[in-house]
Amino acid sequence: xxxxxxxxxxxxxxxxxxxxxxxxxxxxxxxxxxxxxxxxxxxxxxxxxxxxxxxxxxxxxxxxxxxxxxxxxxxxxxxxxxxxxxxxxxxxxxxxxxxxxxxxxxxxxxxxxxxxxxxxxxxxxxxxxxxxxxxxxxxxxxxxxx
Length: 146
Hints:
Layout: H1 2-5, E1 17-18, E2 24-25, E3 40-41, E4 44-47, E5 54-57, H2 59-68, H3 81-101, H4 108-123, H5 131-145
Antiparallel strand pairs: 1-4, 2-3, 4-5
Helix pairs in contact: 3-4, 4-5
């Protein structure tokens, strides 16, 4: 490569490594429109952005992402499956909290569920610790009425 370019090219060393012999043919008609299509997917060893663990972004998983879900080919897995799952769970918890906080009327069980969601989001540093006061205000009137 150095002889061809006359210099030594530098590429970011993010820990990504293609695993040879793992190619899966792509179906170009099922990919989202792109400047350059991908003809094959390969297992790729990567490093998780959040936890730093190594994981494999499998060729079959890429085929599912790009052909079934129709993610753009520029999309890439930057988190390991457990970290991705954790983020999905946090997003679902936040969505449920938002549904409950804006509900015109909540049952006692829904109020406790909302408080549980809020506390989980505080523990994961999604919400600020001051939110605990809001939870107390929501639960206090309910506790007094019970």
